[in-house]
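A.,

Following up on our hallway conversation. Structure tokens first:
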């Protein structure tokens, strides 16, 4: 099993190049095809436009918006194709109009993995949304690799931390991340605050998933940590630093009122404070 098509969301933000480079590194490792996608809103007058604006001026403003959007689109496409061709990775480029979540989710359903940048209020470019990655992972049915808004990542997936709680979402994330885990040099499965006697975890938390991964040729280090005074997100962030981790694999939680749960607790803290790329699946 390997990733054969990787979608990367491109935009006009300063972080676009790093997002593309991450996708290209993974594609080169898996002999995959990279699909660049840019989503733009259709030209429209802003809400503060005067009522009764003359038609000629309205058309002129809309035309100028279309011209600016075309210039941005051309600039982003040129950068994507230049980087992909320089890396020797087969690629294609698409644009879409309208709702970014719907557009990215649609394209994402036809790819093995989507690469999306961490949301940012400061750099919300054409077709981006501050929580785009969070929404797409819940809407697309496919895994998402979220690239932090700062830093460069020459190494991804060589030293991996799996956040393991023995739940459905974590199991889905491990299965979706298997191509990366099989190629990793070091994989840690971390069970944070597992309850004693928890039948879901088994007698030894982390042991069952470690055996499963070992049968796939993945070398796994089982770790458990208990600290009721430290938030689980901080336990994970600390272990990422201690183990020189370059990729975190975790499930995107979802039950009733899935959107609120996803944006709260452990996931929200990790998505806001990520220090390495995060592989999430629902």
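Then the amino acids I'd put at each of the 282 positions:
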């Amino acid at each position: 099993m390997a990733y054969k098509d990787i979608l990367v969301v491109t935009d006009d933000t300063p972080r676009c190049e790093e997002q593309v480079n991450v996708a290209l590194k993974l594609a080169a490792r898996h002999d995959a095809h990279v699909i660049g996608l840019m989503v733009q809103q259709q030209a429209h007058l802003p809400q503060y436009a005067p009522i009764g604006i003359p038609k000629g001026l309205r058309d002129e403003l809309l035309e100028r918006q279309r011209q600016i959007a075309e210039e941005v689109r051309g600039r982003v496409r040129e950068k994507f194709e230049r980087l992909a061709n320089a890396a020797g990775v087969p690629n294609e480029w698409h644009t879409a109009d309208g709702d970014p979540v719907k557009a990215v989710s649609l394209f994402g359903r036809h790819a093995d993995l989507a690469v999306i940048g961490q949301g940012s209020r400061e750099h919300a470019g054409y077709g981006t949304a501050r929580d785009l990655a969070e929404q797409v992972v819940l809407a697309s049915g496919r895994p998402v690799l979220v690239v932090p808004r700062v830093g460069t990542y020459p190494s991804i997936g060589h030293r991996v931390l799996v956040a393991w709680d023995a739940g459905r979402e974590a199991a889905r994330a491990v299965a979706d991340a298997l191509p990366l885990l099989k190629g990793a040099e070091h994989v840690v499965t971390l069970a944070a605050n597992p309850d004693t006697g928890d039948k879901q975890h088994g007698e030894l938390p982390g042991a069952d998933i470690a055996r499963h991964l070992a049968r796939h040729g993945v070398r796994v280090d089982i770790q458990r940590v208990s600290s009721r005074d430290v938030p689980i997100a901080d336990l994970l962030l600390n272990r990422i630093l201690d183990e020189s981790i370059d990729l975190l694999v975790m499930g995107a939680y979802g039950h009733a009122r899935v959107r609120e749960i996803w944006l709260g607790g452990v996931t929200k803290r990790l998505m806001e404070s990520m220090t390495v790329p995060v592989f999430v699946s629902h």
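The first strand starts at residue 5 and ends at 9. Curious whether your intuition agrees with the design.

B.
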